[in-house]
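Cross-posted from the bioinformatics board.
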Amino acid sequence: MPSEIPSICALDALRTHRRGAATAEPPDAAALHEVFQNSTINALLEGLYDGSMTFGELRRHGDFGLGTFNALDGEMIALDGEFYQIKADGVVYPVTDHQRTPFATVVFFRPSLGRALDERLSYDELQSRMEGLMEGPNLFYAVRVDGRFAAVTTRSVPRQEKPYPPLAEVAATQAVFELENVDGTLAGFRFPDFARGLNVPGFHLHFLTADRRAGGHVLDLKLERGALAIDATAQFHLELPTDPAFLHADLGHDQSEALDRAERAR
Amino acid sequence: MPSEIPSICALDALRTHRRGAATAEPPDAAALHEVFQNSTINALLEGLYDGSMTFGELRRHGDFGLGTFNALDGEMIALDGEFYQIKADGVVYPVTDHQRTPFATVVFFRPSLGRALDERLSYDELQSRMEGLMEGPNLFYAVRVDGRFAAVTTRSVPRQEKPYPPLAEVAATQAVFELENVDGTLAGFRFPDFARGLNVPGFHLHFLTADRRAGGHVLDLKLERGALAIDATAQFHLELPTDPAFLHADLGHDQSEALDRAERAR
């Protein structure tokens, strides 16, 4: 965990980073406690899969979160500062600082609330339980559940070639994994409805097994028991790509239906 | 202008500020070069007019921008670090650090592009001209026009009492000012369509006369000649209120029509 009072060096690192130079120093993002996001979900839905940020840079903004990879090459989950790539072959790979992401959301996870979950819960029930513990629907929430799952249905998406098809088309070719009786961790976010267009409204969760050998974007689950942690913040930082494909994309129209097909269809 | 390389003290000030303590030091926001926003336009449309941030804090995030005041008491415009309050009586007042705002958008204005505007332009023509100079519709743009105006139609909104009515209702009672043959400054932003729900998509401009005696939220204008400056950034920071009214408000529904009535109707 970064200390609460970052050193002058850490602040220097932030400054250096923001001005574009490479540095290995930790960032000040932990002090900000903001949800940090690279690009927008609308851009991803439109097929903008070129990675605009390195994971070396992304990890300066958070130690927890989810996203995807350059060319849409799988699902990303970050836990405790470790970043994992779950490819469509179902294998979990470590992520190097040189890999790039077209869309990711991270935070330095500092939960303000924890609860033991002692009963079996469906995905809907788990979402309701989490919402019942939140301070209303209008903040940014990072959520983590470590537990035992009777079942988790995950998916991953295969690496794409240009010209990139829209995400809803790719999702039709996704690899689906039915994991049963596994220990593991759910990690993700609940975004407010008014942030539609920027990120997935409502819950968006990824999963990784405790043995770090399987996981993906969560489509469904049955929790047996677990420990829930919720991190609420009122701070959100968005960093947009500046490549021509993003700058001139048509991102303004309502993509709710495409989002549903891309993120929730089995 | 803040220097490009902030001092260690300035960075310390950011840290102190972010951790909640009061400080008179300048912030690091200039180094970040991010558009900073307090609350959301949807919250304002719903009638959430309680100021959630002081202007003392807001000015640490920018020297240029627009917004409104606690209880919706007029229109705010910020130029060169000076903040002005244009009340519904048409008078321009200085803003103190202790006043509060329920919604504001600011940036440390550092234009990357300037153009002389030598011909008469309607409001629509000016918007088209500005869009033609921008790198596509998907970044955050701050825009400033200093010039001579054949006409500027502005409005301001009167201070409200609780229970607060929605903004579209208040706009029906707005004071409209027809300013003719005036020197002055337009200041505001162009937000991407995908940020709908957070801020006004497209252009949102406020106006202040050169003699600092009139202005308001711009409804229409005729430019004679002027100087345009555009500041593009890919960085956006949102800070949400955390009072119960905001936390539990219904902010997710489409408010495009209410927005049009509140921001563009005469």
